[in-house]
Structures are given as structure tokens and as C-alpha cells.
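We treat protein structure as text, and this decision shapes the records that our systems exchange. The remainder of this section carries one protein's record, kept here as part of the documentation:
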Amino acid sequence: PLTGRRGVSLPFTDQCEALGSAGEWLEALAQEALALGRNRRWKYLEWRGNNGGFRGIQPSLSFFGHEVDLTRGLEALFAGLEPSVRRAIRKAEREGLEVEVSASSDAMKTFYDLHCQTRKKHGLPPQPFAFFQNIAHAILGKGLGAVIVAKSGEVPVAAAVFFRFGRRAVFKYGASNSAHQGLRGNNWVMWKAIHWLASSGCASLDLGRTSLDNPGLRRFKRSWGASERRIDYLRYDFRRGGFVQDRDRAQGWHNRVFSLLPVTWLRWLGGILYPHLS
């Protein structure tokens, strides 16, 4: 692989902590993971969570995590939103935006088209469509989530992918049409998702990780009445024989370059690069 052979507690996830609290058995398990990495000649081993079985180790990377308590009831949830969010929801309702909750491949294709636009705006290649097709088949097709799409007439203006397992739900991907940003489709999709998840018995909605250097996204997530926590990653470098620091590469010169490329080129690059970056 381009980035070398490596081990990750669970690739393509924001957080995957060990199933238990710190203790001797957890430390022994972590040592076994290190032994496996040495045997398989991994470049590094990364734990995405706060209880990897090691004490007193500085995190390689840190993020913010946000979670909405859905057990408070819809009235209390709406009252707990920032005033700007409540105004945006009311505007979307006045504009007559319609919402579809679906696990169909057509809904995923609608999301993906918006996703490619959004990734270009942020200067990032999109994941390959096959990745989302697999999500639709292996997760949404098993009743473990849905795509929520907001439309103005026949025009999709925003969409998001949500996972759910038991009473927990995760906001995984969001995208929108910047030409229709004024309709507040993103806010409408999120509110309708909260309504759907709370009404169907979910107790919490995890809004995913946020880079420490992205105050805008952090502010957006907190505006939904979410509680905030820190998510720490640990990385062991086998060549150096110890834990190392890393830097968040979400923002940099590459964003400016990618934002200038056509979507077709970005999709091609995403198919090449994404398997090596997650």
C-alpha cells in the first residue's frame, strides 16, 4: 500500500475503543496487538479511542466528539437548539422542502452526487462510489441506517447518511447543493433525522469527530444541543519503537489544489487514494 502496512483499531471509523475499561487484561491485549504488528511488519498501529490499554501516553492526535441526547423528547430537543438553528428549520419548512428517508440505492446515488460537489468545495477527493454502494448493501440494506434527502421540488438540496445500532445512532456523512444553501437544507435534514431517530427509539445521536482546527464545524454541532468530549488517538511506530505524535492533515495546500480540479478527476483520485488514507 502507498502508506505502508498498518493496523488500525477499526479503519473508516472515527472512534473504536476497546470493549472494556483499563485493566491488566486490556494492557495484555494491547501488548498482543503490538506483537502481531511486529510479526506482520506493520509500519504503525493506531488505537482510535481513549482506552487503548496504555497509561500516561500522550495522544498522537485529538479531536472533538459530539453527541445529542435523544431521550429528552422532541419539544425539549427543539428548545435546546441554538436560535439560529431554530430559525433555519422554520425557514426550510416555509420553503416547502420535502424529506425522504430511504435505504435504497437510488437515495445513495442522490447523496453521492451531492457528496462529490461538497468534497470539491472543501478541496478533497470523494470516496469511490463502490464504497457507498457497499454501505447501502451491508448496512442500510440490513435495516441499520438510512439516507435522508431534502428536496425542493425535484431538486435535491441536501442529504446525509445515518447509521443506527440498537438505541445508538451515528451521523456519518453529510452533503449539500451550495446553489441552494439559502433553503437551509442541511438544517432540515438534521432535524428530520433527529425526529425520525428519536421517534423510532434511539437514545443518542453521535455527530462524529471534528478536527480541533475546525471551529465552524464544532460550532455547528454544538448548536444542536450536543454534549462535547475529546477523542484521543494513540499511534505506535514500529520503526521508532515507541509512541509518536502525528498531525491532522485535513487542511493544507492540497485543499486548494483539489478544489480546482473537475469532479470527474477528483472521483478518479479518490478511488486511488482513499483506501490508503483511512
In short: The chain has a mean pLDDT of 91. The chain has nine helices and ten strands. The longest helix spans residues 105-121. The radius of gyration is 20 Å.
